Inverse folding.
């Protein structure tokens, strides 16, 4: 399971309940774009942990995402792939796609998601391991809202940390693959990597 050590304030707070801009002395958020089996991914870390994974990270998508993060985080992330937290996130993502890592341990910054969405995503992270899947309704039941399958779908769509917080492992009750922000081909690729679906022939 990904580390959620409260000492690192991975709940997205600054230790005093606030979620404003960077704390005095905090490192500026850092970003890098990495290649993967599902296309380029933008990884962004704060001093608290990995805060964003963005799909289809073309130059335009990257810039739009960084602009949006600047508004949310109070400062624009800088290109700093040697940042220790970011370097560790890059290493773990590469190991995952190489089939060498099943459980991410990089700290997470949850500050971009709150309320029901955060509750559902935390349950997903804790309770649906590599190689397993869960239905939208099943996940809703796990957080005490058995009738909230549609709201769970919305939470998956709002996930700021896909791949690491594995919304690709949530599928439809009838066996359908369900939606995915990175596209259905990317979802199939991730489920095939984890052995849930057969590897594509080409």
């Amino acid at each position: 399971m990904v580390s959620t050590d409260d000492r690192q304030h991975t709940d997205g707070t600054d230790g005093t309940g606030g979620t404003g801009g960077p704390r005095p002395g905090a490192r500026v958020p850092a970003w890098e774009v990495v290649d993967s089996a599902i296309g380029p991914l933008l990884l962004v870390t704060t001093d608290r942990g990995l805060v964003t994974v963005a799909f289809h990270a073309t130059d335009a998508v990257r810039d739009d995402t960084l602009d949006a993060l600047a508004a949310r985080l109070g400062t624009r992330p800088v290109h700093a792939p040697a940042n220790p937290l970011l370097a560790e996130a890059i290493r773990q993502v590469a190991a995952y796609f190489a089939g060498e890592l099943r459980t991410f341990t990089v700290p997470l910054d949850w500050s971009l998601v709150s309320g029901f969405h955060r509750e559902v995503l935390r349950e997903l992270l804790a309770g649906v391991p590599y190689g397993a899947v869960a239905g939208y309704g099943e996940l809703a039941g796990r957080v005490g809202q058995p009738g909230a399958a549609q709201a769970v779908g919305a939470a998956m769509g709002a996930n700021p940390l896909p791949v690491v917080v594995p919304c690709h492992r949530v599928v439809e009750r009838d066996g359908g693959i369900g939606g995915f922000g990175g596209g259905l081909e990317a979802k199939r690729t991730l489920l095939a990597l984890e052995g849930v679906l057969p590897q594509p022939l080409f």
